[in-house]
Write a structure and sequence with these properties.
The chain is α+β, with helices and mostly antiparallel strands. It is built from 13 helices and 16 strands.
Length: 407
């Protein structure tokens, strides 16, 4: 299934499926067919999310949500997202073969957008499902100048009697009320090296790191590289470099903190000119908001001190700020129990990457299962999880559902 879905692409020769694209339509048809074979009722919602529903005998029963995203990055791997949609379908098919009747409704969700490729904005699918697509999301435009709102109007087609306004209002409603939901479980490849290092097939996510992103500008004085004495220089790059090393040193010492300066431009940018201005990014993540905030305070003081000592100006611009998501203790404990039953040992992992579970945590308690991937590699065609590890993940999911049913 992973292989077959991995061949559904918008670009021949490499995997790429983006929000509401022709390949997404084909992916929904393919995965929807597998959902039907597993006994699910299938629909596609107004945001392009694929929803497969298994009804319990009692219509008033609560609902368990299982899923991940069906879109991909450019030149993607086959497992990121797809695994979390396909594995629940196989697990539910297995329960059906065993004659297990679940006393709650299940919805398997294939979100239409998580990676932020087409509109440079992530989570459009899960935001739509949660009724959190706002005016700002709908106004975003892709490279062809088409807005999210226009793309959705085209996707949904002309509906007689349904004005565009009503259609947009329908997007603002969550698919379910909070009290109706048991929770949301997402299975995903780890996209990191910890499980491989620990020699484990799966692990349980305790939290998804919050992240803050900034653009920093250091301004000094450009000057002749040959004639300006070292003591009279105000070198913006030397200041930014001292800051980068200070950020690294602090992040190495604080458990859970990761901080990265990933892009930097030097002006004027000539070999014989002292750098007058440097602009760089800063990406700071920590599983606890307090840890991230104290790191940001430290980095602020560090930048101020370096600027003062070197006679530089520095400005900060915050470009992104997402709080950490702590997974539900109850749902996570149940998942840990299933991992122990299948694998013997369970370890807690922090997700440094964002996932649909971040958005879904506003609607339901969330839990996440990570599956080992080779070399921690992801967002790459060589992304790989072994059949043996997928089998462990499947057994965990089946055990989790059976125990949920027994309680
Ligand atoms: Zn993903």
């Amino acid at each position: 299934m992973i292989g077959e879905l991995g061949r559904v692409t918008d670009e021949p020769g490499r995997l790429k499926r983006t929000f509401l694209s022709p390949a997404m339509k084909r992916a929904n048809a393919l995965v929807g067919g597998w959902m039907r074979e597993a006994g699910l009722k299938v629909r596609v919602d107004s945001v392009g999310n694929l929803v497969g529903r298994l009804e319990a005998a009692n219509p008033k029963a609560k609902i368990l949500l299982l899923g991940s995203h069906l879109d991909t990055v450019r030149d993607a791997g086959k497992f990121d997202g797809a695994l979390g949609v396909l594995l629940p379908i196989v697990a539910l098919g297995e329960l059906r073969r065993r004659g297990v009747k679940l006393p709650f409704h299940v919805e398997v969700l294939g979100f239409s957008e998580e990676e932020g490729v087409r509109f440079a904005s992530a989570y459009l699918g899960s935001k739509g499902y949660c009724g959190k697509l706002g005016a700002r999301d709908l106004a975003r435009r892709d490279a062809d100048g088409i807005s999210v709102g226009e793309a959705l109007a085209r996707w949904n087609g002309p509906t007689p009697g349904l004005s565009k306004r009503v259609g947009v209002n329908a997007l603002l409603k969550p698919a379910h009320l909070l009290g109706k939901l048991i929770g949301y479980l997402e299975v995903h490849i780890e996209q990191g090296p910890v499980l491989e290092k620990e020699k484990l097939a799966v692990g349980v996510v305790s939290a998804i790191a919050g992240q803050s992103r900034f653009k920093l500008t250091w301004t000094g004085q450009a000057g002749h590289a040959g004639t300006t004495p070292m003591m009279l220089r105000r070198d913006a790059l030397a200041g930014a470099a001292e800051f980068a090393v200070g950020v690294e040193k602090y992040a190495r010492a604080l458990p859970g903190l990761v901080a990265t300066i990933g892009a930097l431009t030097v002006s004027p940018g000539a070999g014989n000119v002292i750098p007058g201005e440097v602009v760089h990014t800063l990406d700071v993540r920590h599983p606890r908001d307090a840890g991230r905030r104290s790191a940001l305070m430290h980095f602020g003081r560090l930048a101020t001190r370096i600027a003062r000592q070197r006679g530089l100006q520095r400005t900060w611009q915050r470009t992104q700020d997402n709080g950490a998501v702590v997974c539900s203790p109850e749902l996570t404990a149940q998942l840990v129990r299933s991992v122990r039953a299948v694998q013997g040992r369970s370890i807690a992992l922090v997700s440094g990457a964002g996932h649909d579970a971040v958005v879904m945590s506003a609607l339901a308690p969330v839990a996440m299962l990570f599956v080992r991937c080779r070399g921690g590699l992801s967002h790459h065609p060589d992304e790989y999880a072994s059949p043996a590890d997928l089998k462990v993940a499947l057994r965990v999911a089946v055990h989790f559902l059976e125990r949920q049913a027994a309680e």
